[in-house]
Amino acid sequence: MVAVALMNAMYVNAQNENLRHEISLSYGLGSIAQLGDGIGEGLASAIFSDTEYDDGFILGPISAEYFYHFNNPRLAVGGLVSYSKWDSDILKRRGNHEKVGERNRNYWSVMPAIKWYWVNKNAFGLYSKGAVGPAFLSSTEKDFANNTSEDESDTYFLFQLSFIGAEFGKQFRGFAEAGFGEQGFLMAGVRYKF
Predict the structure, then answer these.
(1) Between the CA of residue 132 and those of 5, 141, 155, 172, what are the distances in Å?
(2) CA–CA separation, 147 and 20 (whole Å)
(3) pLDDT band (50, 70, 90) for residue 42
(4) Which residue of 49, 148, 155, 193 sits 20 to 30 Å from the alpha carbon of 68, by its own alpha carbon?
């Protein structure tokens, strides 16, 4: 019975090592682009303008990832694509806070990434992740008083550092990460290994 148990454990472990590809979909809270944009715009409007932005509608970041596991089961290399959106009304700061415009901002990022598994078992993984790359901003701001619209686009160099990530399951896994960067300070999602 001990021999059968050992052979079964070796077979299950071999199955885990043969799962070289993984794809993930996740949702995060508080991307660095959104946080930086909010702080920067808030200070600029407070000092130089008589308008302010409301909290509006914030989406994301939503991320898709692909990783490839080499012969070393602890190392994975891949990349990620992330998208987030921030729509807000522009309000007069004084008086009745009349709506005088709208702002719509979209953030995209594409980053190569690396992941290191501290624990890589068949039903559980514990890892850290790092990614760097370009992020793209497209923005439209409408001024109702002057009936004008201004478009802006910009490119930034951003990152994601996930200090700790945990995943649970066999080939289909749920996961959660805590870190700092373009995917947010907290994120959770689903992963498929094949």
Answers:
(1) 43, 29, 13, 27
(2) 55
(3) low
(4) 155
Pair type for strands 21-29 and 186-193: antiparallel
Tokens at 48, concatenated: 């130089």
Instruction: Tell whether the torsion through CA atoms of 105, 151, 181 and 119 is positive or negative.
Output: positive
- Assigned token pair, 186: 């907290």
The answer to whether the beta carbons of residues 61 and 85 sit under 8 Å apart is: no
Kindly give the residue spans of alpha helices, DSSP state H, lying in the chain.
Answer: 2-18, 32-48
| Phi, psi (degrees; rounded to nearest 5) at 72 | -80, 110
Rounded CA-CA distance 8/2 in Å is 10
How far is C-alpha 126 from the chain's CA centre? Answer: 18
Tens of pLDDT, residues 80-135: 999 999 888 878 877 787 888 888 989 999 999 999 999 999 899 999 999 999 99
pLDDT digits (tens, 9 = 90+) for 166-175: 999 999 999 9
Contact present, 45 and 75 (Cβ < 8 Å): no
Distance CA 25, CA 173 (A): 11
